[in-house]
């Protein structure tokens, strides 16, 4: 299990990296934390002919507050930096909570926030989180940059809008409205393993404890993370009663996801999980938002 | 022509300058180029933890990093802890609690745990299990490892 | 009196070196000029290999050679049987089709080697594999055991009339008659699936051929170094003393490392000579899943006949055992299943029938447990089905049927893997059951805890099962003990060590006799240069069989030392004692001689030597048991199941165990812990999964779930019943596999109990939450 040979580039700045990517075109590939890419290369399932290693581009790793109170995260910020960041913990506890479910600490010490999103694994937490928090993603290429919403960014399993010469540079998590809280729920075969079904649900309440906004994202149960439209339809403007939540959970499980059968779970079982997890997550998010 | 990249790495306090192929895995670099064979390889896809080392003070998997990524960084391997004659308190605790059998997983556990105990001085059983969850052991059933970590935490507190 | 070191938890001699990262494992070995091997493996499970193009691979810089079957001439033929066929059993039939070192014309399992590359690095060797182009004609894969036996089924071995690899019927009493008298007969179909041994260190081999010395040295983490040496020598036309096999520190074995005459050792020894350069192959994890042997899949049709009071009258078990593509290990596994199905219970009538089947899957050879977990799973699940039918308590129905402690030795009437009729040498099963029940508060659980939990909507379930573990089987092991001029003791034995603490436990046995400190005994295992007789490490036999040989050798050395000391100290032997490295006259301090001095005097360099005398304080001894010693135990477990997600949590786990007199109780507990972890894996996480085309879907730890620290119970609560085996002077029984044996049965029982309100019945191991969910939905009629 040794990787095939490749050419190696180690730029020190974003500018250089973008130049490398442009020069290499289809034969180039970004190396971020390597925690998905290198295992795939060891199995020779991935065999890029050239790697542009971003690990020496110090300017791509940061966590900072935006002017409007959101959080901007440089693509090369390590997962564990986000997990333990005091600003993140305080302003967006759902982010810190989610980070803890990604693999094990040794992986989170290397894996990057942007890398996981760019990788677009349907079972991964961060693409789902960025969708749940309605993140904006900054995509750069030599001489150009553009903003893409999380919703637009992922187009299929392991597929994004990124072109070979593009780099995901920054992820901006917009500020949360007052009385907003999230809840993360998953079932995986083992702790630290990829989920068989999971949800990140974020709920905003008004003063009367009616739902002002809800973003209930299902993931690992379809080709991409899925934002439940039904949740918004049923809950927004209404009291999030047990019955309403149960209705959303049942509907989402039945109609809004598309889990396949695999070695570890049948479609039926994974739909059952979606129902249970959505119910538990929405209930918890509402409870937290009320606090 | 095979590309070779010059790297400078400090391993267990010793600086090394080497030329390596970009694809050389860090685990292979440590084991075969530097002959520090205490770091083991059990899966080469990031799951078993046998290859765990400290990279700039944090425990990571050396089998899913390239040696070139270590350029300019500091690494500690199991050989940095203690010698057979003078074991590190964590190693002593492993011996006293029979936390190893074949010992193949042990260096990886030790490196995970030294990192963990650095930040968590007095963990509960459950926290310990979560901390070592990313390291596989086929022989011990983990229970004695949990016991060893508790003992090590005590020993290390006494030492400091 | 010397302090006793036997039957004592002594810290391990080997630990400091391992802990410091200074123990040499296989892949740590480097030699000047070392070359690296990689195998090109078949992507198909069953296909004709029409041709293979290796020209591009050969041209790659750094590639020394690429070899296919064509390049190996006569070497390409089926290898030797690893264990003898079951001819001792009347009426047994079998076909032996042993492993080919490299596929020629046809591949029979996914992962079978079709070419081998030798290169300057493993990286380059793997590159070359990518440039090898085999041309296959795919054939239908034989996967389903029962379909495989139907007329007209595709054949794994076309020279055989069917896919039947072997057939054995054994019976004691008369099941058919017993069934006639029964009040109740229950019939079930039961599945057990396949698991990998998954030692953390993969397999591997390093070979050095020294042309000038005409010596081959092989380093290999084999469980059977002497077999490897002998097979290599005879295959290569060498004398045994031209081949030395050394087992370095080995990162776990658990069964598959017993195999020799595998593609690696056969082909690479040949190439090392041909190229006159040392070669290393260290298997990677993917290869380990594909091409290292694994075990467990069986399909059982079981029947139990009982009285309405729950007394067992008879048991019938007709089962299919998957042998994989070849059967070099013959029937060890299914015979173990036969001997462990009905073992600790009084069942006068037992009919058991094995049909062993060839399939297009990896070869099956023992994995920790080796057929025993299947037997125990079948029996215990049937007992639970009976308890359910009779509305009896699961512990009670077991209690009333257990063999009583005054019954030993008990002949079982069933011939086992050692080809002698099984005999239970000793034990006390009812006490083990009672102890486990009391430790887990069985009564309180049933009467208070569980009803309360159920009232609160919680799903707590309990399981309790008993089992035996046939251990310490023959044929024999030996040992050589030598006292050095430094007064320290060296012990050499033929078995190899994969983490079982032999460097300490064997030292304890020798130290106990010779009055030295355990750390002053150096044990060498698995080095044919140090000791070249024996069978190997398997069937939980190392401590029992080799341990006894060491004891016997130590006694001989002690006698020799006492005789000599008696002359020198002019004191009768009966007044001498061995303490702290000295032989001294009891009660006269200072009148003593050190073992080291004695050892030097026993080896005179000048003068005369009496006829018949043997030099040195050295002795060799051998031990072979008439039949194996049988360990036993009882396991109980409490599960808390989330009835929505079917995720179970093991709240408590109690294991009461008898392995006779434990040499080192700390080590015994460790062995049991490890076995239980594997058992938990087998019950709920681990499963080697082949699809219908024979593709292995679990060739990585992403898909093959290895039990983690958080999958284990918070504590393994251990109880011991120490019932010495009368078979050997130390009273020991083996323990290596104990934990793995009952766990799936107990787990499944507890799971059913937890999900009582669904009425679910689960006759399958290697479960998953999804599987359980499917069972529950079926039970609910959904
Ligand atoms: C044992 C193990 C368990 C894991 N478990 C989980 C888990 O439970 N959940 C989970 O979500 N993940 C898991 N992962 C994956 C881990 O989170 C990875 O870190 C993550 O998927 C990718 O991040 P990375 O920085 O390592 O990216 P890399 O592996 O370096 O790259 C991944 C891909 O994204 C591309 N890429 C990376 N960054 C950029 C960029 N800035 N611009 C453009 N393209 C880019 C790369 O070219 C590559 O194709 C696990 C990994 C391992 C080894
Ligand atoms: S060898 Fe690195 S995690 Fe297994
Ligand atoms: S001690 Fe053998 S794998 Fe842990």
Describe the model.
The complex is a heterotrimer of chains A (291), B (160) and C (782). Chain A has twelve helices and 14 strands. Chain A has 291 residues and is an alpha+beta fold. In chain A, a hairpin with a 5-residue loop joins β12 and β13. In chain A, α10 runs antiparallel to α11 and α11 packs antiparallel against α12. Chain A is globular, with a radius of gyration of 19 Å. Chain B is an alpha+beta fold and 160 residues long. Chain B has two domains: 5-80, Ubiquitin-like (UB roll) (Roll), CATH 3.10.20.30; 89-159, Orthogonal Bundle (DNA polymerase, domain 1), CATH 1.10.150. Chain B has helices spanning 26-33, 89-96, 106-119, 125-131, 143-159, and strands at 5-11, 14-20, 52-55, 58-61, 74-76. In chain B, strands 2-1-5-3-4 form a five-stranded mixed β-sheet, covered by helices on one side. The mean pLDDT of chain B is 97. Chain C has 782 residues and is α+β, with helices and mostly antiparallel strands. Chain C folds into three domains: 34-139 and 202-250 and 256-291, Aldehyde Oxidoreductase, domain 3 (Alpha-Beta Complex); 298-473 and 626-780, Aldehyde oxidase/xanthine dehydrogenase, molybdopterin binding domain (Aldehyde Oxidoreductase, domain 4, 2-Layer Sandwich); 474-623, Aldehyde Oxidoreductase, domain 4. Helix content of chain C is 27%, strand content 25%. Chain C has 19 helices and 29 strands. A seven-stranded mixed β-sheet of chain C has the order 3-6-1-13-10-11-12, sandwiched between helices. In chain C, strands 4-8-16-15-14-9 form a six-stranded mixed β-sheet, with helices on both faces. In chain C, α6 (225-236) crosses α7, α9 runs parallel beside α10 (372-390) and α10 (372-390) packs parallel to α18 (743-754). The longest helix of chain C is centred in the C-terminal third of the chain and has 28 residues, at 542-569. Chain C is globular.
CATH architecture of the largest domain in chain A: 2-Layer Sandwich
For this structure, the quaternary state is: heterotrimer
Bound molecules: flavin-adenine dinucleotide, FE2/S2 (inorganic) cluster
- What's the story with the biggest beta sheet of chain C? 7 strands, mixed
Structural class of chain C: alpha+beta
Mean pLDDT of chain C: 94
The number of helical runs of chain A is 12
Helix content of chain A: 25-40%
Give the strand content of chain C: 15-25%
Cα Rg of chain C: 27 Å
Largest interface: B-C, 62 and 57 residues
Q: State the share of residues found in helices of chain C, binned by percent.
A: 25-40%
| N-to-C CA distance of chain A | 51 Å
CATH top level label of the largest domain in chain C: Alpha Beta
Alpha-carbon Rg of chain A, integer: 19 Å
